[in-house]
Amino acid sequence: MRHAHGDGRRARIGLLGGSFNPAHAGHRHVAERALRALRLDQVWLLVSPGNPLKPRRGMAPFAERLASARSIADGRRIIATDIEARLGTRFTVATLALLHRRFPRACFVLLIGADNLFQLPRWKGWRALARGTPLAVLPRPGETRRALSGQAARALARHRKRPGALLDGCGTSRHAGWSLVPAREHPASATAIRRAAGRVL
Ligand SMILES: Nc1ncnc2c1ncn2[C@@H]1O[C@H](COP(=O)(O)OP(=O)(O)OP(=O)(O)O)[C@@H](O)[C@H]1O
Ligand SMILES: O=C(O)c1ccc[n+]([C@@H]2O[C@H](COP(=O)([O-])O)[C@@H](O)[C@H]2O)c1
């Protein structure tokens, strides 16, 4: 993969992991807002081979979800990738460890919607994950306030940073930190799209 970092600094890559069942304008909005607010070079849409917390029922095949993610990417700044399936990982903490090892010069930041900040304490190894990789949280309708007063936000309160400073000294601080990215809340959701299409939820 080519990294756009003409000035010689480390490539700044936002990782937007998701089921993409299907991909939608909310994902594109998150990627575009993060590119700008965090001065990223690229956002990778990491299509999950299977979210450990989501039921398999109603989950479209991987190839279909990858194609869906590609349809909202631009192939330049926003790239859909099957790397998580190729690495053979499903837990994000494991995916991140392998990505850091495979791309040691890249500066990664994990992009999540506010619903996932609230859920973070249910993720495997979430404290180690948050220590090792910066987290950028995007507001989401009906989720932002609850997430900011939830268990993860409280536990990580003293590591919160300004979005503009989140990637400063990438990988050298004792705790990677996290930020809320200021952005308009986008109402799109895959559940709503599946429901409107009459698909199994
Ligand atoms: N409209 C949105 N605003 C902010 N974040 C979003 C939005 N849509 C998705 N995300 C985030 O993008 C990531 C991948 O989302 P995912 O593919 O699960 O889509 P989803 O719409 O949340 O799906 P579902 O409704 O099936 O749970 C998650 O971190 C999610 O929080
Ligand atoms: O690692 C975990 O324990 C874990 C638990 C739940 C979700 N995730 C990841 O969170 C990302 C968003 O998932 P989803 O299904 O809400 O789009 C995706 O990359 C999942 O693999 C990861």
From TrEMBL:
Reactions this protein catalyses: nicotinate beta-D-ribonucleotide + ATP + H(+) = deamido-NAD(+) + diphosphate
Gene Ontology molecular function, alphabetical: nicotinate-nucleotide adenylyltransferase activity
Organism (species): Belnapia arida
Pfam families xrefs: CTP_transf_like
Family statement drawn from the similarity comment of this UniProt entry: Belongs to the NadD family.
Function: Catalyzes the reversible adenylation of nicotinate mononucleotide (NaMN) to nicotinic acid adenine dinucleotide (NaAD).
UniProt pathway: Cofactor biosynthesis; NAD(+) biosynthesis; deamido-NAD(+) from nicotinate D-ribonucleotide: step 1/1
Lineage: Bacteria, Pseudomonadati, Pseudomonadota, Alphaproteobacteria, Acetobacterales
Keyword match Mitochondrion: no
Domain of life of the organism encoding this protein: Bacteria
Keyword annotations from UniProtKB, A to Z: ATP-binding, NAD, Nucleotide-binding, Nucleotidyltransferase, Pyridine nucleotide biosynthesis, Transferase
Enzyme class: transferase
Gene, per the UniProt record: nadD
Domain Cytidyltransferase-like: 15-195
Identification of the protein by name: Probable nicotinate-nucleotide adenylyltransferase
EC number assigned by the record: 2.7.7.18
